[in-house]
Amino acid sequence: MPDRQTRRWIILALASAAFIALIASTGVWEASLRFLFPQESQVLHPRASLLTLVVEHLGLVGISSSLTILIGVPLGIWVTCPGGRNFLPIVTDLTSFGQTFPPVAVLALAVPMLGFGLVPTVVALFLYGLLPVVRNTIAGLRAVPPHLLDAAYGMGMGRFQALFRVEIPLAARVILAGIRISVIINIGTAMIGAAIGAGGLGSPIIAGLVQDNLAYIIEGAVPAAILAVLADQLLANVEGSFAYMPEEATR
Amino acid sequence: MIKLEQVTKKYGATVAVNGLSLEVNEGEVCVLIGPSGCGKTTTLRMINRLIEPTSGRILVNGKDTSQVKPEQLRRSIGYAIQSVGLFPHLTVATNIATVPELLHWDKTRIARRVEELLTLVGLSPAEYAGKYPSQLSGGEAQRIGVARALAADPPILLMDEPFGAVDPLTRERLQAQFVAIQQELKKTVILVTHDLDEAIRLADRIAIMAAGKLVQYDTPETTLSRPASKFVHDFVGSDRALKRLSRISVESFIKSAPTVTINASIKQAEAAIGSRRSAWVVDDKGQLLGWIDRTDLSQVSSISEGMVTLESKDIALWQNATLREALSRMLGQGFKSIPVVDEDTKLIGEVTLGDVEAATAEAEE
Amino acid sequence: MMVRQWVTGNSVAVTGSCLGLLSLPFGWLTLKASRLTAGTSLRLWDAFSWGVAAAIIVLWLLCLALSLAERDKRHAITIGITANAILILTFIFAGPAANRLTATGAEFARVSLSAGVWVTVAAVYMLVFAARQSLPDYRVWQNLISWTGLAAVVILLFTGWLNNISVVQEFLGRESRFQQELVKHIFLFGGSVIAGTIIGIPLGIWAARNRRAERPIFYFANITQTIPSLALFGLLIAPLSALSFAFPVLREFGIRGVGAAPALIALIIYSLLPIVRNTFVGLRQLDPAVIDAGLGMGMSRPQVFRRLEVPLAAPLVLEGVRTASVQAVGLTAVAALIGAGGLGWFVFQGLGQAAPDLIILGAIPIIVLALFVDAVMRTIVRVSTPKGLATGTS
């Protein structure tokens, strides 16, 4: 009997497969939406198939989150190292200050600067997604008990070795929690990105609002909701597979 | 004053307390003790109805506790627990004033009482009344917990390991203070502990429990000298005699000791020592300074030259110390006699190993 | 101690000064033929005069020099003052510059602030932050340095000095609408947070007291929190639409498919998780000995709740309300998409018309509102923290 973790993975894998199958089967969608909204002449947004929309959306989130991780985690590490320690207060201040900014506003402000389309969306998603990742990286690294580091140095580890063998693995769970928060927020913000021409699952919803077509709205809303919940559970599982959880884990 | 009649508590199939019958007289300190899981804490908490008995009656002052509203019952019983449970958002004074406020005392009376109690537990009201629990040390917090329990002057006090959460040194001091306070206030106290030494030191009667049942309920002396069963015998341990020494004060054994003043001449010192091996050296006020050996006397020209200076703390005993401490000093310092001093470090007399032997022999009967 | 902290501020100050100097090659003002067209970028010396440009350059160099030099508190104060001066100069001269440019330009010409100004603001922030850091014991100076520049800009704004800057123009053209949407925004987010608190706190208490209720409550709250806001709005539109179709009387109350109704419901759902979770944790983290002592001393259950649980859990619960409030400000902005109104209306109108100033007119107040709500709630949390918890040995 597989243990609880493995069972969760299996369930999630099955759910994801079902989701993909569902998305790909345009016929099923067409039929169900037509059933629910018989009054609409068109039930599926013509611009692109649902599958394309999901891929677009995942692409947006994927690119911006990858950038966020690539830049945010090292930034968090640098700022907790003696080299960048000088910038820790201002970075901490900025990340908590920035968290109060509504993501919509950040996305909107990207337009006057960078125009419409993919670029401003990705930039806005990247910037806003940095905040939880950097904050959690800092918190995770700081929560490593100092006596463990002491032991590491005492054993003869150099700074980088201690960083990669002790600090980062111990902080991994908290860092992943930050990544998870960032990704989920991004999935939500990317929806609004459709309003500035970035595509994704937000476009049928916005089209539906404009054209007063409920079917379009549902076509966008349901897959988006399922996608978000699935992604959250998947990432939570990844997070959970890291055993160490420090006492002061952040939210 | 407190009477438990066939009190039983069951949790499903588990019997935590099994037909316990116990009577505590007014002004007595009854200590409930036993191995963990024996039901002592459950019993305590049934008295103030934090736990309701499955069957049986508990009478306080002749009245059945189940007939009184729990809140009212508890306001007339003091309650002190191990983790103290001081309210962190209230000052020390407000904490202590909790029950009096629940009883609607007027403000001046409460303020006076808070001052009284702080002084009673040995903390300066001016300094501590306005402090918050987070600013207190473990020992201070426990004392304030006791003060809080005594605030409304309840006739009965329930205590669950009240001195448990501090270091042994502080615990000893707290226990001594408790004994002093109890002598003054004469409350009816039921105290739960797992520390046998504490039980022996504090109790008028010890109730030993095992698996929910009362096994023996006697004075400490009787419990130690006449254990009722093998269980009790093993529980109190084979060094019963030694334990008994902690209930005997040195006061009854103090004898006068050969003493010389530091300014005395060698001849006078020789006269004082007589045939003994050594004498204690005091200053002209009578305060203990050290001791001098007889053999050294013949080799020096003044007492101060030949004497061994002592920090009184190392060897001397206070007047109210127990024989157990005396024995401990003797063994630790390698002396056969220990000086006893009063609060001003003035030498009163000494206690010898022979006295300890005599006391132990008495105990063996 | 002082020296070490000054070193901390030092590198930040140096970076800030360099950033400030970097603002120079950017355009500072943009002159557009109309609010919709792109415009020409004007450099600092073209936008303001050469004199002003020189002054600003000198001030930045001064900051740089001070940041690199010997450290003491006078340097910190000077840097702080200089940074504020740069900020004030920028905005003081932006006003007349805008006046001049619009007067001599085309009929619908607009002047907007450009990258140079924003980089300057960022650099000033860094310098002010660094200066603050180095003056830990000088609260008066700290506050002066932090707020003077900002206060000056706000005063300039309100006295109409900056009226010819495009964003302000945009605002002046729609003042009453702005007020309308602002009020709608406040009602939406305020109403949903209040409702969320009324529903969420009892749920949190229930979850804390009752182990069996805990799991389903958190399951629901957690899952709904992950659903993207636009999706949740969308999911609520359909049933509400159907409902108002079936029961036309609902339309009298303004409950239609789109509009404020689905927004409000979704906003309430979103504020549930932070409030429920914080109430739950607030009650659970209470030392059980405190409750036991309270009961044992003769407090009744309601008394224990009122005198012990409420004051001790209050700070955390209010923190949850704070999180929910700030979140709600942002989500309300999105709700403008589904016709609920609010400040987001300006954002989406601006996006639709490709009018950047309109976008900014919506986005900046939303951010300011979020920051304001955050600050107010933080103060409330601080005030509600019982003294005994704030002091102490941690």
| CATH homologous superfamily title of the largest domain in chain C | MetI-like
How many helical elements of chain A? 10
| Average of pLDDT of chain A | 86
Helix segment tally of chain C = 17
CATH topology of chain A: MetI-like fold
Cα shape of chain A: flat
Q: How many domains make up the coordinates of chain A?
A: 1
Largest interface: A-C, 46 and 55 residues
Q: Give me the count of strands of chain C.
A: 3
Strand content of chain A: under 5%
Describe the structure.
The complex is a heterotrimer of chains A (251), B (365) and C (394). Chain A is built from ten helices and no strands. Chain A is mainly alpha-helical. Chain A has one domain: MetI-like (MetI-like fold, Orthogonal Bundle). In chain A, helix 1 packs antiparallel against helix 10 (214-240) and helix 3 (50-80) packs across helix 6. The model of chain A has no long low-confidence stretch (mean pLDDT 86). Chain B folds into two domains: 2-245, Rossmann fold; 250-364, CBS-domain, CATH 3.10.580. Helices cover 39% and strands 25% of the residues of chain B. In chain B, helix 5 (107-120) crosses helix 7. Helix content of chain C is 78%, strand content 3%. Chain C has two domains: 2-165, Butyryl-CoA Dehydrogenase, subunit A, domain 3 (Up-down Bundle), CATH 1.20.140; 175-390, MetI-like fold, CATH 1.10.3720.10. With 394 residues, chain C is mainly alpha-helical. Chains in contact: A-C, B-C. At the A-C interface, helix 4, helix 5, helix 8, helix 9 and helix 10 of A face helix 1, helix 5, helix 10, helix 14 and helix 15 of C.
List keywords for this structure.
heterotrimer; A: 251 residues; mainly alpha; MetI-like fold; 77% helix; 0% strand; C: 394 residues; Butyryl-CoA Dehydrogenase, subunit A, domain 3; 78% helix; disordered N terminus
